[in-house]
Write a structure and sequence with these properties.
This protein is about 50% helix and about 15% strand. The longest helix is centred in the C-terminal third of the chain and has 97 residues. By secondary structure, the protein is of the alpha/beta class. Strand 1, helix 3 and strand 2 form a beta-alpha-beta unit. It is globular. It contains 12 helices and 10 strands. It binds thiamine diphosphate (TPP), iron/sulfur cluster and magnesium ion.
Amino acid sequence: MTTDIGKFKHDSPMSGVLRMERMPHIWCPGCGIGSEVNAFAEAIKRSGIDHNKLVVVSGIGCTGRVAGYVDFDSIHTTHGRAIPVATGIKLANPELTVVVFSGEGDLVGIGGNHLIHAARRNMDIVVICNNNFTYGMTGGQVTPTTPTSAITSTTPYGNYEYPFSLPLLADAAGATYIARWTSVNVRNITQSMEEALVHKGFSFIEIISPCTTLYLRRNRLGDGVDMLQYYQENTVLKHGCDTRETAIDFQGKIVVGKFVDKAKPTYLEAVDKCAVRLVGDDYQLYGKTIPEREAEEKAEKERVAARRAVVLAAEQAASEKAAVKAVKKVATKAPVKKVAAKKPAAKKPAVKAAAKKASATAVARKSAVKVVAKKAPATAAAKKTRK
Ligand SMILES: Cc1ncc(C[n+]2csc(CCOP(=O)(O)OP(=O)(O)O)c2C)c(N)n1
Ligand code: SF4
Ligand SMILES: [Mg+2]
């Protein structure tokens, strides 16, 4: 095993997507944020998106630290303001893919107003919300998603408020892509992120995740592994589910899946339409007419698809190579297995011999008994004569 940490970081499969020089990260053992970031990095790699055209924005909180670990242009902005900053970036340069990665306190508590209005406008950004039911970074206070009756530092006798169901909130506000997973559903999270990255419009992905240090400990729910097991056993997959049926009770069932995926003009498309109506087809945004921007978008889409095909082909080749290696390993082990399989047959004579020996011993014992029996009266008679 290498002891060269620098080389280890450089050779990491996440190098180039995450800032490996900033590892180890700050998150607690068992916290769900790490696996979400891993899924995000995987989704970015698979998506084929140009890293130079990707921006990640986070607010403040444990989840807010994500922006500092990704190896793209990123902003760690003020608490609750990740969505307006992302909106500004998208409006300033519509060619960019803009992703907000933040906590539920940041996005739905202090930043709740921004969330609903960006969703209402169908702003073309991706919002990934780590929902751990608490303000992790500041000591585990109650948030707008904390289930009723859960204990937090500000609800020591149990939460008496009614929580938001985030898919329902995003749906009611106008989001056009909505999915929810728990941090154990890593493959689904990756897939949803890939889909959201290419979805046109406001995408919202909620990931239910354990805050081991504060929420789990206060509610005596065990550690991160206990929670992953809980998620495994208590998630109910319902793609296309009515978002009114996605409420979460304290330690109740969690409905997961892709709930909404629909097409609707984005904010910028609505602006374009209005502007064309006012000034005609000569209308330009940042010096480009609509057909010019559309042609560029199409060309970029093709480049993304080509890059994605290369990544997927490499993945396929790697998995085939691994399969061949596994078959070879089994093949080299096979003769040993055959010998092992023949062994019982080889053992048969030994068993027979043992049986023979055993019966011989039994015969010998029997005759010995007979001899003893025969001898016994003599002994008794001898005893008698001695007397
Ligand atoms: C304007 C403002 N108010 C309050 C805070 C304190 N603060 C920092 S992080 C945070 C909560 C973060 O919670 P959440 O978004 O759920 O992220 P988590 O830590 O749980 O990942 C708060 C209240 C702040 N930094 N700025
Ligand atoms: S305090 Fe909670 S949310 Fe923050 S890193 Fe630790 S486990 Fe994660
Ligand atoms: Mg939180």
